[in-house]
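Table S2 (text version). Query chain:
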Amino acid sequence: MIINSDELDATSAYKLLIGAVTPRAIGWVSTQSESGIANLAPISFFTVVSRVPPIVSLTLQPRSDGTLKDTFINIRDRGEFVTNLVTLPLAHEMHRSAIEFDSSQDEFDEVGLEKADCEVVKVPRVKDSPIAMECVVDRIIQIGDINDHVVWGKVVRFHVRDDVYVRNGRIDTGAIPAVGRLAAEYTLADNAFVPPLPDDVLSARLGRRSHRLDGRPDGWSQVDSADWSASGATKA
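Corresponding structure-token output:
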């Protein structure tokens, strides 16, 4: 199958991108409105841009109705945000924070999460997340004419839980049940390797589908359900 990207609308392109770029890290982004309402949203177009200074990138699509997301408005207006690492014990709360709550609702309260203070930015972080990064806006880039925006944030503070911080400055990733994004589903990082792998390990995994942890049948995708939208929001 060869697909000409010039012939795709935004939703069709989004479906292909989220299925082709996997697994994706999730930036669980906390922000705060000018009136002090905390917001929390998972952003899976999230990556590292630079080491010195340390800069991360978020790409934000609009809400399902085409208007700007609260996350973007808060970042634009306040110039700061926090990314929180998603782990398996926090996966349900993360998924629920993708619901398009009203701007007047504190999403920490709505999904039942405790806040923790930051040192530099005024935005709260997720207390139970093992790693959080306080960020101040470096630049904002509008993409095209459909309200997609790229945000670069300079990391001004790293919060790393003591038990996952190794003294030589490394994070013990094997101790973190990190959750990433596939297409519209999630994946648990529960193995690690350095190539080359033994032939018997490779052959045992050849053609094998990923194991579903939720009991749904192979081939099921939330993209095909009424709970999915091309805004990245969820209804359940």
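Notes on Table S2: The first helix runs from residue 10 to 20. The CA atoms of residues 10 and 145 lie 11 Å apart.
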